[in-house]
């Protein structure tokens, strides 16, 4: 494997580096990734029960989990029965009721009401619990680039 020569910006001296993997390793990795491709799925309540990975773990992929709640209390119980908390959604005919549930009872960093979509750069993005803390995007994200000074006077 041949070295790639770069320059140390501090000293101007040449630095030799080597690729992190051989071509055949890269090919094998891509083939494995292709073999692990998941087709889209819609999971119903029958597919999700406590103790099952689709219920207990965060699913990243082309998967939609649809669970019908009996009432508001059941919806809150289902939504908050997770160690994760990146985002969620509420579909409801009464938007005021959905807004109150989202604001006062759901323990997630982001909630969409009667919609689904990707992150919006104007809205804060981030989770709670095991899904992280802090926010990106929007006004909250801008504060990540600001310095705050704390002064204590006893």
UniProtKB/TrEMBL annotation:
GO terms, molecular function: succinate-semialdehyde dehydrogenase (NAD+) activity
Name of the protein: Succinate-semialdehyde dehydrogenase / glutarate-semialdehyde dehydrogenase
Pfam families with a match to the protein in the record: Aldedh
Family matches, as InterPro entries: Ald_DH/histidinol_DH (IPR016161), Ald_DH_C (IPR016163), Ald_DH_N (IPR016162), Aldehyde_DH_dom (IPR015590), GABD/Sad-like (IPR047110)
Annotated keywords: Oxidoreductase
Residues of the Aldehyde dehydrogenase domain: 49-149
Family annotation (SUPFAM superfamilies): ALDH-like
């Amino acid at each position: 494997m041949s070295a790639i020569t770069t320059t140390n910006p501090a000293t101007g001296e040449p630095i030799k580096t080597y690729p992190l993997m051989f071509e055949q390793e890269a090919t094998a990795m891509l083939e494995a990734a292709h073999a692990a491709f998941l087709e889209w799925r819609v999971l119903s309540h029958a597919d999700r029960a406590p103790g099952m990975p689709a219920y207990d773990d965060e699913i990243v992929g082309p998967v939609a989990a649809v669970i019908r709640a009996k009432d508001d209390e059941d919806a809150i119980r289902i939504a908050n029965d997770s160690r994760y908390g990146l985002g969620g959604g509420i579909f409801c005919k009464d938007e005021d009721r959905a807004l109150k549930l989202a604001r006062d009872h759901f323990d997630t960093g982001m909630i969409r009401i009667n919609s689904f979509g990707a992150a919006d750069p104007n809205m804060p993005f981030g989770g709670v619990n095991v899904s992280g803390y802090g926010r990106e995007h929007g006004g909250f994200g801008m504060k990540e680039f600001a310095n705050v000074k704390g002064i204590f006077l006893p």
